[in-house]
Amino acid sequence: MIQFQSFEKKYGKTLVIAVSKLKLTSKIYWIHGKNGSGKSTLLQSIAGMLRFNGDIKIEDYSLKKNPSLCKSWINYAPAEPRYPPFLSGKEIIQLYIQTKNGNIKNVDYLISELGMSNYMDLPISSYSSGMLKKVALVAAFTGDVKWILLDEPFNAIDQYSIEILSKWIQYFHKEKGIGFILTSHQGINIDLINGIEEMYIDNNEIKTTDDRNNETA
User: Fold this and answer.
1) Which pTM was predicted?
2) What is the number of domains present in the chain?
3) Fewer CB in a 10 Å sphere around the end CB: N or C, the chain?
4) Would you say residue 203 lies in a domain?
5) Pairing mode, if any, of strands 53-58 and 14-24?
6) What tens digit of pLDDT does each residue of 119-143 get?
7) Would you give the end-to-end CA distance of the chain in angstroms?
């Protein structure tokens, strides 16, 4: 469970995103909003990468008071991943396996499904944006975590990979009880992911479809 308590993130005096009170249980959430609406900032805050006002609780533990514990429960895949150019994709994944207690057999299966095996030994500097994206996605599914945060996960990958990723999300949620938060600035095919719950960002705040229905009623 993720709970927001008077959460807000500012850069200087500019408010980027605010969540006064919200509880997310271990479901699959899709948060959409235009570019610059605060989606990435929100995920980075949950992942413990940014300072913010208020608090976020992960499984009833304060992220501010228990940062190491809370961050161990969360994997995050950025919209535009960046890694040291001299490392190979395999070396990056191995780092995640070590830090997140991952299973190499499970990871090898994911790599094979996304058709990555032929380039995992090559340096990151030779990767296209789509290849980098796949490395970040495999890393996010590595280890024993409670939440996986995927920022613009369907960008830069082909339709086949989108379908594979959607299958992973459903499997990891159903079989392992992992919660997911996905973001996008464009629409996604929600038919590929059963039970996904839609939310959106408007005027620096997260709103649910119920909020939208109330506004238009």
Assistant:
1) 0.94
2) 1
3) C
4) yes
5) unpaired
6) 999 999 999 999 999 999 999 999 8
7) 31
User: What are the CA-CA distances from residue 212 to residues 196, 202, 215, 216 (Å)?
Assistant: 17, 10, 5, 6
d(C-alpha 183, C-alpha 33), whole Å: 8
Residue 36 is encoded by which pair of tokens? Answer: 């610059």
Is residue 66 assigned to a domain?
yes
> What does the alpha-carbon distance between residue 31 and residue 199 come to, in Å, rounded to a whole number?
5
Domain assignment present for 109:
no
Instruction: Judge contact between 199 and 31, C-beta under 8 A.
Output: yes
Chain position carrying tokens 């994709």: 89
CA distance 181 to 217: 28
Query: What would the two tokens of residue 101 be?
Result: 């207690």
Q: Which domain holds residue 174?
A: 2-81+145-216
Q: What is the 3-state secondary structure (H, E, C) of the chain?
A: CEEEEEEEEEECCEEEEEEEEEEECCCEEEEECCCCCCHHHHHHHHCCCCCCEEEEEECCEECCCCHHHHHHCEEEECCCCCCCCCCEHHHHHHHHHHHHCCCHHHHHHHHHHCCCHHHCCCEHHHCCHHHHHHHHHHHHCCCCCCEEEEECCCCCCCHHHHHHHHHHHHHHHHHHCCEEEEEECCCCCHHHCCCCEEEEEECCEEEEHHHHHHHHC
CATH number at residue 179: 3.40.50.300
Digit-coded pLDDT (tens) for 137-172: 999 999 899 999 999 999 999 999 999 999 999 999
Token pair recorded at residue 130: 């789509």
